[in-house]
From TrEMBL:
Keywords: Cytoplasm, Heme biosynthesis, Iron, Lyase, Metal-binding, Porphyrin biosynthesis. GO terms for molecular function: lyase activity. Fe(2+) binds at residues 193, 292. The keyword Transferase does not apply. It comes from the Bacteria. Coiled coil: none annotated. Catalyzes the ferrous insertion into protoporphyrin IX. It is found in: Cytoplasm. The keyword Metal-binding applies. This is Ferrochelatase. Its EC number is 4.98.1.1.
């Protein structure tokens, strides 16, 4: 009998790249109050009446560009492969299940599987290196809501953000070095998923000044922006880069609100116009390749860079089911159990 359930959760994907399936997915995703922070009475007509009808056909076309024929969405496929390898690494004391936040495999079915297997302790593992209320926070709330709805009682714990943990940093650095072997790189761009500034400002003391997020202990407050800077800075240092050799930016803006800056598209244009001909782009807020990395950055970003005079554009793959990453993550999970035992022994 497995002693610990490991619930891997990411944002999820539509069932197919058909417009109807993309509409269903976007409706579920955008109706989350942690994504669009408006009262339901305003959020529902905005999502169902304006955003989704306009966005779904465009998004469906983009999903089609990166869909793995015969397999499915890259995010779902790579997460499944990661799950299988992680199960091998963890062994029979653990039961690994995927519970996507807005799609299948669902959190509902994962919790039912844990109950059927006799699991009592569940480690919630949001597959986001940096903490954000719209990702990790929303996931944890949904898991607890589903468990209450199903009347299932587990001893829940949450894996902390791993934005600067060597388990994540080591394979990221190795992946960059391997991907760029023999290549000449003028500049490195770290592109993180963006968030509305108002969400960052909900953490007291965050986004007060341009450099507040790079101050000592800034990321201890679970400030997403600070943790992004910590990730990029740690990887850049390990690569031996000077501050002039790399830039941090934020992608995937949605709506008219002020989002974190600088934007990735503006930086790509700026680098090209400055005469940077060869750039490397890494997306370290994602552990699995998906629409945002493969289409938005891999296809759209490359086109934009080259349209403004850039030449060679090297997109670094996400960690996906990399063996070193999988082994490291298994150790991270086992370490969380060890820390729990140590805390109990001291109580």
């Amino acid at each position: 009998m497995a002693k610990t359930g490991v619930l891997l959760s990411n944002i999820g994907s539509p069932k197919s790249y058909s417009v109807s399936d993309v509409k269903n997915y976007l409706n579920t995703f955008l109706m989350d109050p942690d994504i669009i922070k408006l009262p339901f009475v305003f959020r529902w007509p905005l999502v169902h009446g304006i955003i989704v009808p306009r966005r779904a056909p465009y998004s469906a076309g983009n999903y089609k560009k990166i869909w793995l024929e015969g397999e499915g969405s890259p995010l779902t496929v790579y997460t499944q492969r990661f799950s299988e390898k992680l199960q091998e690494q963890l062994g029979s004391d653990y039961l690994v299940k995927i519970g996507m936040r807005y799609s299948d495999p669902s959190i509902d079915n994962a919790l039912k599987d844990f109950k059927a297997a006799g699991v009592e302790r569940v480690l919630i593992v949001p597959l986001y290196p940096q903490y954000a209320e719209a990702t990790t926070g929303s996931t944890v709330k949904e898991v607890r809501r589903v468990a209450k709805h199903l009347k299932i009682s587990f001893d829940f714990e949450v894996l902390p953000p791993f934005f600067d943990d060597n388990a994540f940093i080591d394979p990221s650095v190795r992946m960059m070095n391997e991907s760029l072997t023999g290549q000449s790189v003028d500049h490195y761009l770290f592109s993180f998923h963006g968030l509305p500034e108002e969400q960052i400002k909900q953490v007291e003391g965050c986004l007060v000044t341009p450099d507040c997020c790079v101050q000592k202990n800034a990321c201890a407050k679970n400030c997403y922006r600070a943790q992004c800077f910590a990730t990029a800075g740690t990887i850049a240092k390990r690569l031996g880069l000077q501050s002039s050799q790399w830039t941090l930016a934020f992608q995937s803006r949605l709506g008219r609100a002020e989002w974190l800056k600088p934007s990735t598209d503006s930086i790509l244009e700026k680098l090209a116009k400055e005469g940077k001909k060869n750039i490397a782009v890494i997306c370290p807020s994602f552990v699995a390749d998906c629409l945002e990395t493969l289409e938005e950055i891999g296809i759209g970003g490359k086109e934009q860079f080259q349209e403004h005079g850039g030449e060679n554009y090297f997109l670094i793959p996400c960690l996906n089911a990399d063996p070193e990453w999988t082994a490291n993550f298994a150790s991270l999970i086992k370490g969380s159990k060890t820390k729990e035992a140590e805390l109990k022994s001291l109580s």
